[in-house]
Description:
It contains seven helices and 19 strands. By secondary structure, it is α+β, with helices and mostly antiparallel strands.
Amino acid sequence: xxxxxxxxxxxxxxxxxxxxxxxxxxxxxxxxxxxxxxxxxxxxxxxxxxxxxxxxxxxxxxxxxxxxxxxxxxxxxxxxxxxxxxxxxxxxxxxxxxxxxxxxxxxxxxxxxxxxxxxxxxxxxxxxxxxxxxxxxxxxxxxxxxxxxxxxxxxxxxxxxxxxxxxxxxxxxxxxxxxxxxxxxxxxxxxxxxxxxxxxxxxxxxxxxxxxxxxxxxxxxxxxxxxxxxxxxxxxxxxxxxxxxxxxxxxxxxxxxxxxxxxxxxxxxxxxxxxxxxxxxxxxxxxxxxxxxxxxxxxxxxxxxxxxxxxxxxxxxxxxxxxxxxxxxxxxxxxxxxxxxxxxxxxxxxxxxxxxxx
Length: 358
């Protein structure tokens, strides 16, 4: 591989990485090159010049999704040639799958350039179900120790307990190798639903059931909810209860992503996972070192003002040595939020998405 090709940046952005010695999670800026994946730390709103680590890609193995970390469904695993495991978390399923696909392509290219052979995977569209015993699949899903995790979800201000999302079911089926690909897992989940082993919960999954074709009764969607049928009582039935405090988290997710936010008191900059929702319109932010269940902050977008900040100099109210791509949101109660995106395009995409909801 020539020097110019080696120095090509294939992809870059924030991922949350688990430490090797201390198993805590920290956001890092990752840069994918043709032969390695490098990562950096952000300090004071600027990426440091010191490379914190690198992962050599030759003969690496990628597992995506990797679902052994509770409350972290967006993790994929990278195992190096020497057997070292790296656990990386993206901000969304699309980002997770795109990162995994780009890394896999780089690994395959290295293998081909070395004169080796690359195995071709079965096309998911051609995957078929053969001699599947749905009762055994249900038993595996229902297993207390290794079955699918059940949680509480909010839909339109209503809290549903003891259920799971459609995408969580598909992830679990692929992870347990009961299905080889997401398309096959979707077909299997549709069969479980059609046979009455699973049932819809809330309006999203019910509407999907009504409008879907014969091959797509089940929705691979993080907002479509399902549960076991009422005949299964070990884990309890789904109960709905009104939760006024959850109303602001019940909106449709419009956009997710990692952004840097300046603190209100200490004025320090930290990477946060931002989630933009509509109906009702809210912008919440989460600590990516923890989970995306309980936001550390958020505000209604009603009557908010959002604007891009000039990259020349340091705008009033901003502290630190910025890299640029700043924008500001002023809430109805006159609270100012200063936020930094990774790129100019990312900044403009967020501004446009927020403006549509204000």
